[in-house]
Write a sequence for this structure.
């Protein structure tokens, strides 16, 4: 199984919902800086208890470490060009810090939550 590890900052507050089967899932975009000072956006999904904790304690700007299984999703842009989105199903999320040292929302500065 391919595994991806990344450190980045949330681009917006996480969104949570329940599937038709009643399973909670939380999604949030993470901005990751490359060595070339480019930004890569990764859509992270966290399920069940991990998702509930992420939804409760994460907020826009918060820095996280994510370990999970990556997938690449192809799509077509409005102008007809092909594109791809990198998505990760989180197995572990560590809450690191807040971008710019601002106020934290809710909980301890570092917390590892196994999937």
């Amino acid at each position: 199984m391919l595994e991806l590890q990344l450190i980045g900052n949330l681009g917006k507050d996480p969104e949570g919902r329940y599937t038709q089967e009643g399973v909670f899932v939380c999604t949030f975009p993470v901005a990751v800086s490359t060595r070339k000072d480019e930004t890569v956006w990764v859509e992270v999904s966290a399920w069940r208890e991990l998702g509930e904790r992420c939804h409760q304690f994460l907020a826009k700007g918060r820095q996280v470490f994510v370990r999970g299984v990556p997938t690449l999703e192809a799509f077509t842009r409005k102008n007809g060009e092909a594109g791809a989105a990198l998505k990760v199903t989180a197995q572990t999320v560590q809450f690191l810090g807040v971008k710019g040292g601002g106020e934290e929302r809710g909980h301890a500065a570092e917390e590892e939550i196994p999937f």
